[in-house]
Amino acid sequence: MHDATKEIAMSELKALADFLQPYHDEVMGLERQALDALAKGDTEAYTASMKAKAEKMKALYPLTLPYLEKLPAAQAKPLDRTLHGFSASANNGLRVNSPFYWSALLWDDDAKPGDLDNLQKFINSLLQADCQ
User: Fold this and answer.
1) What is the pTM assigned to this prediction?
2) SS3 of 8, please?
3) Which of 54, 66, 129, 132 pairs as cysteine with 102 (C-beta 3.0–4.6 A)?
């Protein structure tokens, strides 16, 4: 990759990360709302917040396309696959109408308290690639 192309790609990776970080924060805010509701015994509010989390994740992929289209195809393809996977997983959870599925979105099966979710890991990888 030429230096100018590399600079553009790094700039676009940062732009994608800058878009994704507040989006992620909103998604995790919905998850926190759900967990707070569950702690108070409000299963209806828990379910509503988890569903909102899934709906927000389902909507993510098309919002990222303008960023991906500015990247070289070889660089965009794996990012596209990951972002599409996030949305497709959320869509599956909504299709089966499963609050458990919604709660597991973005988390590895063996995640422990304090672990990063997969969207945050993805954002961090974009920022690391931008620094290289």
Assistant:
1) 0.90
2) helix
3) 54
Q: What Rg do the C-alpha atoms of the chain give, in angstroms? A: 16
CA dist., res. 109 & res. 86, Å (int) = 15
Report d(CA 90, CA 93) in Å as an integer. Answer: 5
Contact 30, 49 (CB under 8 A): yes
Return all residues near 7 (Cβ < 8 A) that are at least 6 apart: none
Structural domain including 70 reads 3-131
DSSP 44-92: HHHHHHHHHHHHHHHTHHHHHHHHHTTS-HHHHHHHHHHHHHHHHHHHH
Count how many Cα atoms sit within 13 Å of the Cα of residue 1 in the half-sphere of its side chain.
Answer: 13
Q: Which helix (H) or strand (E) holds 3?
A: helix 3-39
